[in-house]
Write a structure and sequence with these properties.
The complex is a heterodimer of chains A (about 110) and B (about 120). With about 110 residues, chain A is mainly β. Chain A has no helices and eleven strands. Chain A is about 0% helix and about 55% strand. In chain A, a hairpin with a 3-residue loop joins strand 4 and strand 5 (about 40-50). Chain B has about 120 residues and is mostly beta strands. Helix content of chain B is about 0%, strand content about 50%. Chain B has no helices and twelve strands. Chain B is globular, with a radius of gyration of 14 Å. The termini of chain B are far apart. The chains are: A mainly beta (about 110), B mainly beta (about 120).
Chain lengths: ~110, ~120
């Protein structure tokens, strides 16, 4: 089975802190994604990567950056955490290919910024 | 730009009855895929069903079927014989083919919360 692992299930940080959310997948997927999920807004794409060191902005990249130094790992970085970044963060991965390639998701990280 | 719309924030259904969850989409790409995911209270995202834009028949997976109406740009999920375990958030999503499949990103709707009543 494909496994997408997010390093923390719950995280509490202070405003202004630099925050790293880590995601690792074990199926050699080319594509990796970071979404945030908020009530009433669904899942919104922050960044995605289709190869090592390659990244593309999603719909809401402001306040975030990403790093993909190895194929299996995709990190989301909050340079200076703010309270409006309190959210559930979901990592996902997929093969690169035709439109039917489904995403496999991690279990999510609930981040609270106080 | 691609867009997914789910107009039903929440729905009730009686156990053993069928229910339809609405999804409309917007894209200018002739090649695209439509997905439905289920998210129970545990938070995991579970893939349910896929429909390709060129598929001639509606997709089915067990009790799940996708009512695909291409001209109307709708991709409604039908759950037959609802069970208590079907209570969850349901998300519709779309991926465009783009150029060479390079985009490959999946865009989600806002979700519909389904509550199955005994």
């Amino acid at each position: 089975d494909v496994k997408v692992t997010q390093s923390s299930r719950y995280l509490v940080k202070r405003t202004g802190e630099k925050v790293f959310l880590e995601c690792v997948q074990d199926m050699d997927h080319e594509n990796m994604f970071w979404y945030r999920q908020d009530p009433g807004l669904g899942l919104r794409l922050i960044y995605f990567s289709y190869d090592v060191k390659m990244k593309e902005k999603g719909d809401i990249p402001e306040g975030y950056s990403v790093s993909r130094e190895k194929k299996e790992r995709f990190s989301l970085i909050l340079e200076s955490a703010s309270t409006n970044q309190t959210s559930m963060y979901l990592c996902a991965s997929s093969l690169r290919g035709p439109t039917n390639e489904k995403l496999f998701f991690g279990s999510g990280t609930q981040l609270s910024v106080l | 730009a691609q867009k997914i719309t789910q107009t039903q924030p929440g729905m009730f259904v009686q156990e053993k009855e069928a229910v339809t969850l609405d999804c409309t989409y917007d894209t200018s790409d002739p090649s695209y895929g439509l997905f439905w995911y289920k998210q129970p209270s545990s938070g995991e995202m579970i893939f349910l069903i896929y429909q390709g834009s060129y598929d001639q028949q509606n997709a089915t997976e067990g009790r799940y079927s996708l009512n695909f109406q291409k001209a109307r740009k709708s991709a409604n999920l039908v759950i037959s014989a609802s069970q208590l375990g079907d209570s969850a958030m349901y998300f519709c999503a779309m991926r465009e083919e783009g150029y060479g499949g390079a985009t490959n990103k999946l865009i989600f709707g806002t979700g519909t919360l389904l509550a199955v009543q005994p």
